[in-house]
Design brief:
Number of strands: 33
CATH superfamily of the largest domain: P-loop containing nucleotide triphosphate hydrolases
Oligomer: single chain
Strand order of the largest sheet: 2-3-1-4-5-6
GO biological process, one term: selenocysteine incorporation
Distance between the termini: 49 Å
Function: Translation factor necessary for the incorporation of selenocysteine into proteins. It probably replaces EF-Tu for the insertion of selenocysteine directed by the UGA codon. SelB binds GTP and GDP.
Organism: Pontibacillus marinus BH030004 = DSM 16465
Protein name: Selenocysteine-specific elongation factor
GO molecular function, one term: RNA binding
CATH architecture of the largest domain: 3-Layer(aba) Sandwich
Number of helices: 19
Length: about 625
């Protein structure tokens, strides 16, 4: 079954058991810093792999700090998660950071949540019920109103099995991120390892990255190379969307990187310092937010100061619902339309709102209704933007699916697709997709086939299901892609096998001379060969390629297999047939064949049986007839 990759976040007030719960679930203590151990609080983000009974689910847990002083680390940690566990201690109930964390999660559009009451062994059942009432009161008007509430104790491990069941049920319902999108990894940790050099960590938001790929660091533009990739301390060739990854980077120094930088493969993601946004505010603002007031923007893992610009008011006094406005930043960020963000007030320090990016390329606009109307249209999106947005999310859709997801009329979609086809959109009956997504699919497949041919040069090609798994598309679309790639001379097919068009199966170059020496020796021994393994041993050909080598040699008509151990040279075999035919009548006996070939029954019987199998002769009673 296909593997699926997810990241779970821990959120909640300080000392409400996030790190202990992470340790109970994963057996890993995510507090690794000396200061964290001494103060018994989380300061930096912690990460651990969670193993679930369903082996197709690959899960990382992000443990975020609960103290209000480390809210920026919390925002960086939860920005890329698929599910959140909101921890609330049974001996304290809902606390200020519980509320702020839930506000932040709601503004970041993280609505998949499980409420976890921790430390239940410290209190009696009556207290637990009071805490549940407190939780229900606080979440009833929020997006977490329907979240299940699970009771656990991390020390006794009470309730952990039930919690794992809930986690698995949630993740199986969540649509996994697609690895065919443009690669993006916001960096949240940068450090150096002696003898290794620069290492970064982060959650892969979009796409996938492979070893040795050339990448770019934005916004600085530094070019680097992924020398090594690890997922939870295990070296891998590839990290995918939804996975927590560490990359050892070549070509860039540690001091040239920082939290908030973004690793990308191409120029898909804009670098900008002026963004048009939609903005929602928290319920209670401690003071007015004035025109051009200073704010701190948190997006991905970056934290940037800027000023908010309104076009229809001079201040926000109370929560006005969702508004459209602009944020002008002191430093550039990497983002695209649809990305979520949080804004906080630097003084007094508080979370004041959040929203999503309407346009990463904001410009200077006049104050007034004309600008508001323009931004409202941006919020709705042009028909082209709406088509691009839904294809970005779904990756391929039929015309009817596009119609349903965009809410556009058929005529509008047809007009837009006509303009977008070729430049932005491609069509494989009956699916539409973004050109760059399908280019990435093609690149993934070609890279896989190239690596497959290097690893298995004697095989014709890779099995179709394996290649389709790499493409990560459905079977109908995959067949269309194969058809096009074959027409373009990119690949070749032979039944269920797929290979690069330029590839021809061959002996491994490293061992080719030695294998040829073995074949020469086999030819010299004619119809009385030694076990084939003896020839290979004599030349030092390794055992791990022998089975595949034997099949390759037979398929290439270089040898003929007599039994499990013995082969003869193909030319020797054809010459032997010709000699026997010239020296016998239409039918012949075993003795006649033995006299012509001068071999014992050990080789005589297998040789004749091979001739029967190949319809060269036919056995009739105790004789054979030529066909």
């Amino acid at each position: 079954m296909d593997q699926r990759y997810f990241t779970i976040g821990m959120a909640g007030h300080i000392d409400h058991g996030k790190t202990s719960l992470t340790k109970a679930l994963t057996r890993i203590d995510t507090d690794r810093l000396k200061e964290e151990k001494e103060r018994n609080i989380s300061i930096e983000l912690g990460f651990a792999p969670l193993k679930l009974p369903n082996s197709t689910l690959n899960v990382s847990i992000v443990d975020v700090p609960g103290h209000e002083k480390f809210i920026r680390q919390m925002i960086a940690g939860v920005a890329g998660i698929d599910l959140v566990l909101v921890t609330i201690a049974a001996d304290e109930g809902v606390m200020p950071q519980t509320k702020e964390h839930m506000d932040i999660l709601n503004l970041l559009n993280v609505h998949q949540a499980i409420i976890v009451i921790t430390k239940i062994d410290r209190v009696d059942e009556e207290m637990v019920e009071l805490v549940k009432d407190d939780i229900n009161h606080h979440i009833k008007q929020t997006s977490f109103a329907s979240a299940p509430i699970v009771q656990v104790d991390s020390l006794s491990e009470k309730g952990l099995d039930e919690l794992k069941v809930h986690i698995e049920e949630f993740l199986l319902k969540i649509k996994p991120r697609h690895e065919n999108g443009a690669f993006r990894l916001p960096i949240d940790q940068v450090f150096s390892i002696k003898g290794q050099g620069t290492v970064i960590r982060g959650t892969v938001y979009d796409g996938a990255v492979e070893e040795e790929e050339t990448l770019k660091v934005l916004p600085s533009g530094h070019v680097c190379r992924a020398r090594q990739i690890q997922v939870h301390n295990t070296e891998v060739n590839k990290a995918r969307a939804g996975q927590r990854a560490a990359l050892n980077l070549g070509g860039v120094e540690t001091h040239q990187l920082k939290r908030g930088d973004v690793l990308v493969r191409d120029e898909t993601y804009p670098v900008t310092n002026t963004i048009d946004v939609t903005l929602q505010f928290t319920e209670d603002l401690s003071s007015h937010l004035k025109q051009r007031g200073q704010v701190k923007l948190h997006i991905g893992t970056s934290e940037v100061m800027g000023r908010i610009v309104f076009f229809d008011r001079n201040e926000v006094i109370h929560n006005p619902g969702e508004i459209v406005c602009q944020i002008r930043l002191d430093d550039p960020i990497v983002t695209r339309r649809g990305d979520r963000f949080i804004i906080r007030r630097p003084s007094p320090v508080e979370t004041i709102g959040g929203g999503w990016i309407l346009d990463p390329h904001g410009e200077k606009y006049r104050f007034g209704e004309e600008t508001i109307s323009m931004l409202e249209k941006k919020r709705e999106g042009t028909p082209e933007e709406r088509i691009e947005d839904v294809l970005e999310e779904a990756h391929w859709l039929t015309f009817e699916e596009l119609k349903h997801k965009t809410g556009l009329h058929s005529d509008e979609i047809e007009d837009c697709l006509q303009m977008m086809l070729g430049e932005k959109v491609v069509y494989f009956t009956p699916y539409y997709s973004l050109k760059r997504i399908m280019q990435q699919v093609e690149a993934n497949v070609l890279t896989y086939l190239h690596q497959f041919h290097e690893q298995f040069p004697m095989r014709y090609g890779a099995n179709k299901p394996e290649v389709m798994n790499v493409a990560n598309v459905n079977s109908k679309l995959f067949d269309k892609l194969l058809e096009q790639w074959e027409q373009e001379g990119i690949i070749q097919k032979d039944g269920r096998f797929i290979a690069l068009h330029s590839f021809t199966s061959h002996m491994p170059q490293r061992w080719e001379k030695r294998i040829q020496n073995a074949l020469d020796s086999l030819e010299k021994d004619g119809l009385k060969p030694n076990p084939f393994g003896d020839y290979l041993n004599q030349e030092g050909v390794p055992n791990d390629i022998r089975e595949e080598l034997e099949g390759f040699l037979v398929k290439q008509s270089l040898v003929v297999q007599l039994d499990k151990k013995h082969f003869i040279d193909f030319k020797v075999f054809t010459n032997a047939i010709e000699t026997l035919k010239n020296n016998t009548n239409q039918s012949f006996s075993l003795k006649e064949a033995k006299d012509v070939w001068g071999v014992s029954r050990k080789f005589l019987i297998p040789l004749l049986e091979v001739m029967d199998e190949r319809a060269i002769t036919k056995r009739v009673d105790d004789k054979r007839e030529w066909l």
